[in-house]
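quick one before i forget lol
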Amino acid sequence: MSRERPVDVLSLDKGWALGEEAFAECLSRIAPLEPEAILEFGSGISTVRLSMELLNCKIHSVESNAEFGSRTLVLAKDFEVSARVTVMHRSPSWRRFGLGLHFTYASGALPSRVDCLLIDGPPGWMCRGREACMYDAFHSLKIGGLAILD
Protein backbone atom coordinates (compact mmCIF):
# COMPACT_ATOMS: atom_id res chain seq x y z
CA MET A 1 0.00 0.00 0.00
CA SER A 2 1.04 3.55 -0.61
CA ARG A 3 0.60 4.51 3.06
CA GLU A 4 0.65 2.78 6.38
CA ARG A 5 -2.80 1.87 7.68
CA PRO A 6 -4.23 0.74 10.98
CA VAL A 7 -5.36 -2.85 10.36
CA ASP A 8 -8.45 -2.54 12.53
CA VAL A 9 -9.83 0.52 10.69
CA LEU A 10 -9.18 -0.49 7.08
CA SER A 11 -9.50 -4.25 7.34
CA LEU A 12 -11.74 -5.76 4.70
CA ASP A 13 -12.19 -8.99 6.63
CA LYS A 14 -15.14 -7.81 8.73
CA GLY A 15 -18.84 -7.07 8.42
CA TRP A 16 -20.17 -6.51 4.91
CA ALA A 17 -16.71 -5.69 3.53
CA LEU A 18 -15.37 -7.27 0.35
CA GLY A 19 -12.63 -9.25 2.12
CA GLU A 20 -8.86 -8.92 1.84
CA GLU A 21 -8.43 -11.84 -0.54
CA ALA A 22 -11.15 -10.63 -2.92
CA PHE A 23 -9.83 -7.06 -2.74
CA ALA A 24 -6.32 -8.22 -3.68
CA GLU A 25 -7.73 -10.16 -6.64
CA CYS A 26 -9.80 -7.17 -7.79
CA LEU A 27 -6.83 -4.83 -7.45
CA SER A 28 -4.59 -7.21 -9.43
CA ARG A 29 -7.07 -6.96 -12.31
CA ILE A 30 -7.90 -3.26 -12.02
CA ALA A 31 -4.44 -1.73 -11.49
CA PRO A 32 -2.98 -2.79 -14.89
CA LEU A 33 -5.77 -0.80 -16.58
CA GLU A 34 -4.38 2.38 -15.00
CA PRO A 35 -7.96 3.55 -14.51
CA GLU A 36 -9.00 7.17 -14.35
CA ALA A 37 -12.49 6.37 -13.05
CA ILE A 38 -14.22 3.46 -11.33
CA LEU A 39 -17.93 3.14 -10.69
CA GLU A 40 -18.46 1.12 -7.55
CA PHE A 41 -21.79 -0.11 -6.23
CA GLY A 42 -21.64 -0.43 -2.45
CA SER A 43 -19.39 2.04 -0.64
CA GLY A 44 -17.20 1.40 2.36
CA ILE A 45 -13.68 0.49 3.31
CA SER A 46 -12.99 -0.89 -0.18
CA THR A 47 -13.79 2.55 -1.61
CA VAL A 48 -11.11 4.16 0.51
CA ARG A 49 -8.63 1.35 -0.05
CA LEU A 50 -9.06 1.57 -3.83
CA SER A 51 -8.47 5.30 -3.69
CA MET A 52 -5.33 4.79 -1.60
CA GLU A 53 -3.96 2.29 -4.12
CA LEU A 54 -5.02 3.95 -7.38
CA LEU A 55 -3.67 7.45 -6.95
CA ASN A 56 -4.78 8.78 -10.35
CA CYS A 57 -8.28 7.36 -10.19
CA LYS A 58 -11.61 8.86 -9.16
CA ILE A 59 -13.90 6.42 -7.32
CA HIS A 60 -17.63 7.07 -7.83
CA SER A 61 -19.60 4.98 -5.38
CA VAL A 62 -23.35 4.34 -5.23
CA GLU A 63 -24.67 3.54 -1.75
CA SER A 64 -28.19 2.66 -0.54
CA ASN A 65 -27.59 3.50 3.12
CA ALA A 66 -27.06 7.24 3.71
CA GLU A 67 -25.40 6.71 7.10
CA PHE A 68 -22.97 4.15 5.68
CA GLY A 69 -22.19 6.47 2.75
CA SER A 70 -21.44 9.29 5.20
CA ARG A 71 -19.08 7.03 7.15
CA THR A 72 -17.29 6.22 3.90
CA LEU A 73 -16.78 9.93 3.23
CA VAL A 74 -15.47 10.51 6.78
CA LEU A 75 -13.03 7.61 6.36
CA ALA A 76 -11.91 9.03 2.99
CA LYS A 77 -11.28 12.38 4.65
CA ASP A 78 -9.38 10.75 7.54
CA PHE A 79 -7.06 9.04 5.04
CA GLU A 80 -6.74 12.14 2.84
CA VAL A 81 -8.32 10.65 -0.29
CA SER A 82 -11.65 12.51 -0.20
CA ALA A 83 -10.75 14.53 -3.32
CA ARG A 84 -10.89 11.27 -5.30
CA VAL A 85 -14.03 9.77 -3.71
CA THR A 86 -17.68 10.59 -4.32
CA VAL A 87 -20.61 8.77 -2.77
CA MET A 88 -24.05 9.00 -4.36
CA HIS A 89 -26.91 8.02 -2.08
CA ARG A 90 -29.64 6.06 -3.86
CA SER A 91 -32.48 4.62 -1.81
CA PRO A 92 -33.54 1.06 -2.63
CA SER A 93 -36.40 0.80 -5.11
CA TRP A 94 -38.02 -1.61 -7.53
CA ARG A 95 -36.84 -1.09 -11.11
CA ARG A 96 -37.63 -2.83 -14.36
CA PHE A 97 -34.90 -3.82 -16.80
CA GLY A 98 -36.33 -5.53 -19.86
CA LEU A 99 -38.79 -8.11 -18.56
CA GLY A 100 -37.11 -8.35 -15.16
CA LEU A 101 -38.13 -6.59 -11.98
CA HIS A 102 -35.24 -5.91 -9.61
CA PHE A 103 -34.99 -4.42 -6.12
CA THR A 104 -31.88 -2.26 -6.41
CA TYR A 105 -30.63 1.32 -6.22
CA ALA A 106 -33.00 4.06 -7.37
CA SER A 107 -32.20 5.50 -10.78
CA GLY A 108 -30.03 8.57 -11.16
CA ALA A 109 -27.18 10.06 -13.11
CA LEU A 110 -24.01 7.99 -13.37
CA PRO A 111 -20.57 8.98 -14.68
CA SER A 112 -20.55 8.98 -18.48
CA ARG A 113 -17.30 6.99 -18.82
CA VAL A 114 -15.54 4.65 -16.41
CA ASP A 115 -12.74 2.15 -16.81
CA CYS A 116 -14.16 -0.35 -14.35
CA LEU A 117 -17.44 -1.35 -12.73
CA LEU A 118 -17.06 -2.90 -9.29
CA ILE A 119 -20.38 -4.28 -8.11
CA ASP A 120 -20.27 -5.27 -4.44
CA GLY A 121 -23.69 -3.94 -3.51
CA PRO A 122 -26.54 -3.57 -2.88
CA PRO A 123 -26.84 -6.06 -0.02
CA GLY A 124 -27.57 -9.62 -1.10
CA TRP A 125 -31.10 -9.55 0.34
CA MET A 126 -32.13 -7.05 -2.38
CA CYS A 127 -33.80 -9.16 -5.06
CA ARG A 128 -31.35 -9.38 -7.99
CA GLY A 129 -30.08 -5.91 -7.09
CA ARG A 130 -26.49 -6.56 -8.13
CA GLU A 131 -27.51 -7.91 -11.51
CA ALA A 132 -29.53 -4.71 -12.04
CA CYS A 133 -26.39 -2.62 -11.49
CA MET A 134 -24.90 -4.19 -14.62
CA TYR A 135 -27.96 -3.23 -16.65
CA ASP A 136 -27.95 0.27 -15.18
CA ALA A 137 -24.27 1.03 -15.70
CA PHE A 138 -23.04 -0.91 -18.73
CA HIS A 139 -23.41 2.20 -20.90
CA SER A 140 -20.84 3.97 -18.66
CA LEU A 141 -18.19 1.29 -19.11
CA LYS A 142 -15.67 2.17 -21.77
CA ILE A 143 -14.91 -0.35 -24.52
CA GLY A 144 -12.21 -2.67 -23.17
CA GLY A 145 -13.17 -1.81 -19.57
CA LEU A 146 -13.57 -4.31 -16.77
CA ALA A 147 -16.71 -5.35 -14.90
CA ILE A 148 -16.38 -7.19 -11.58
CA LEU A 149 -19.53 -8.61 -10.02
CA ASP A 150 -19.42 -10.01 -6.49
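fyi Residues 26 and 51 are 13 Å apart (CA to CA).
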